[in-house]
Amino acid sequence: YILKAGHPLLTSGERIGHDQVVFQRIESTHFVPETTEIPLYLNETETTIQVKRGRWCYILDKHTANLQQVSHQQTMLLSEGSQLNIWRAPTDNDIQIQQGWRTAKYDTAYPKVYHTHVQQQEDHVIITFDMSMVEDSRPRLVEGIVTWTISEDGTIHVAHQLKKDVRMPSLPRLGVTFGLPDRFQALTYYGQGPYESYQDKQEASYLSVFNTTVRDQYEHPIFPQEVGAHIDTTYVGLHDGNYTCAVWSETPLSMNAKPYSDAMLTEANHDDELEETGVSYLHIDTAQSGIGTNSCGPELPEQYRLLQEHYHFDFKLKFYEQTSITE
């Protein structure tokens, strides 16, 4: 809806609202180009699993179930690797519930692998981890199976079958965080935008393709906290001018990109304490706790909390350079 006539606080032609009816979504594969199929070579050590694809190399950590590094020739495309993540920097409205989160040790939980299984097929490699998120003084917070399937065209299928300890509080979030070099600034996503959107905060947003930057996604509230998520996302692309990191899924997920880690946002007490460290953080979540109004209002309704016991989610990931695209 566009304002026809001027107003003391608004100018003529300014957008004041919208309605949207989605008849058919764009297929997530529409955004991802085909890439050349190259034979895979597997090398397993005591601590890592290395899959080589021509000049590409993918390394997974057997102790954490994380994608430790992706490289092409001598170019490193991950700064901090991936991390199964259940923590978010508390918002102002998390002031009540965050004490339960901290008591549960969600903020200091780390991954632990119990068993690894590697299988090489004709055109792909399957790496399966039996793992959990633990903290020394707590039982397993989340446990289950994480599977990484690497194909000859460079597509990585990441699948999770996880179980939450229902005795513990609701989770702040559940997903995977990737740390890329901060030269990956250009951001394209197909989801709810351009404003931040959460499961209980989405009326101002609409479904479309948006082009922005990682830095512009963080709004710099005075007190550092979780901001900038986009629900209903089925494609994300981070670009550095030479390479693209693409993530896509048939099932809508929540996406968040920012130049600060959750740990940095959690520890800082004022926005001016934040300093970029050369990393672009990309969060791909199956779900995140709602925002609510609990700083001065009622508790977050249960429907917006992550209380369920079982979580199954997956997505696909591909790093590619422009010259590798199949003509």
TrEMBL record:
Keywords: Glycosidase, Hydrolase. Transmembrane segments: none annotated. The keyword Ubl conjugation does not apply. Residues 50-318 form the Beta galactosidase small chain/ domain. SMART domains: Bgal_small_N. GO terms for molecular function: beta-galactosidase activity; carbohydrate binding. Its EC number is 3.2.1.23. One of its GO terms (biological process) is lactose catabolic process. One of its GO terms (cellular component) is beta-galactosidase complex. It catalyses: Hydrolysis of terminal non-reducing beta-D-galactose residues in beta-D-galactosides. SUPFAM superfamilies: Galactose mutarotase-like. This is beta-galactosidase. It comes from Staphylococcus pseudintermedius.
